[in-house]
């Protein structure tokens, strides 16, 4: 067996083991009632309380894939364009400054640990998703349009490294000849 064949077999074995671990974790989570939402809620309760100054209110919160949740479990809308361009993933800590004139200014202050996977863009049940490692990750429409991605495209997706997540963030759309390119994650 050639070295390239051995490497391909090893990669396939690792992918299979990772998939089996994810499936086992999901089964444990279903049996114990664990959910990513509970983790983000717990993480949010550990943040600093809101503060105010003369012309603004400052709120810290945890991004859950679409919104930011503060210490008091209040949710704030995060613009999809900001989330897409900033490649936000669930678990990222944000600071929101709410100006007296109603302007919302977000800033990422605590990125969650990240990992990258490669998957295929799909569309089902009115939601774009990337299928990677035997799991479907939801992605924002704004990311799909920003990258001009199409169903069937190979996508580099950023996901939380530690927690299970329903959401991921598109990092890149791989060229159609990606199979010919040696990609090491």
Which features would summarize this protein structure in a list?
28% helix, six-stranded antiparallel β-sheet, 185 residues, alpha+beta
Task: Explain this structure.
The protein has about 180 residues and is α+β, with helices and mostly antiparallel strands. Among the domains are: about 1-35; about 35-110, no CATH class. Helices cover about 30% and strands about 35% of the residues. The protein has helices spanning about 5-30, 35-45, 80-85, 140-145; strands at about 50, 55-65, 65-70, 75, 95-100, 105-110, 115-125, 125-130, 135-140, 155-160, 170-175. Strands 1, 2, 3, 4, 5 and 6 form a six-stranded antiparallel sheet that branches. The protein has a five-stranded antiparallel sheet with strand order 9-8-7-10-11. The radius of gyration is 19 Å and the shape is globular.
SSE layout and pairing:
Layout lengths: L2 H30 L3 H10 L5 E2 L3 E8 L3 E4 L4 E3 L2 H6 L7 E7 L4 E7 L3 E11 L2 E6 L2 E4 L2 H6 L7 E7 L8 E5 L12
**Count of DSSP E strands?**
11
Rounded mean pLDDT is 84
Rg over CA atoms: 19 Å
The coarse overall form would be: globular
Compact overview of the structure:
This protein is an alpha+beta fold.
